[in-house]
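Researcher: Structure for this, please.
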Amino acid sequence: MMTPSVPQAVQSCHELLLWLIPQLDKFPRSRRFTLGERIEDGLLAVLELLVEAAYQRNKEAPLRRANLQLEVVRHLWRLAHELKVMATRQYEHGAALIDDLGRQIGGWLRSHSPVQPNT
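Model: Predicted structure, token format:
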């Protein structure tokens, strides 16, 4: 349950990690400590950046870094599927959660970016 002071993107990232970590635990040993660890560490970094953005006046820099890190996680997640480390259903569910988080970060970023005048 989300508390009012926690931005939705932070809560969604937390929930994604809660779902994702048990999936990574099922990776074969040969991939768990390489690909799985990189995915987990990357998503933990996204969470840290989102929390940082929540507490800073200038949110743009941490949100941009979070967005970039999430893009790396997205590619690693797809690579894990292509290496047949997970079932397609798990991949699709995780990809949908990652995409949703990306949309939330993008919306948060747009809401705190300086307005560009139309030229």
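Researcher: Any notable elements?
Model: The chain is about 80% helix and 0% strand. The domain at 8-112 is CATH 1.20.1440.60 (de novo design (two linked rop proteins)).
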